Amino acid sequence: xxxxxxxxxxxxxxxxxxxxxxxxxxxxxxxxxxxxxxxxxxxxxxxxxxxxxxxxxxxxxxxxxxxxxxxxxxxxxxxxxxxxxxxxxxxxxxxxxxxxxxxxxxxxxxxxxxxxxxxxxxxxxxxxxxxxxxx
Length: 135
Fold this sequence. Notes:
Elements: H1 3-63, E1 67-68, E2 77-85, E3 89-95, E4 98-103, E5 119-125, E6 128-133
Parallel strand pairs: 1-4
Antiparallel strand pairs: 2-3, 2-5, 3-4, 5-6
């Protein structure tokens, strides 16, 4: 093979390698976009499920004629009976005719999950929630 042909072949191999690399990069970008889209869909579905479960707790409180209090996530402290628990929250009767809904996602670490009927103490400190079960 003549030197010019050899150089031309090497350049052609290099150009083909660049094309393959570019296609690989595009495929990775498309894969990344698909994965990000999938994550957004999953996060959206989790949000929808959480709102549905919280609204189930809200409806249960209304059925019991309890007023839902806003939770003070900075310095709130609540005592009461766990009336209902689902995967996303706990409905707690905090005083006569009033209740709070504590979202499970708010709890820093839930060592023992309360059961319906348990007496609980819920404390918030700068957005971190701690739930203690009274013995």
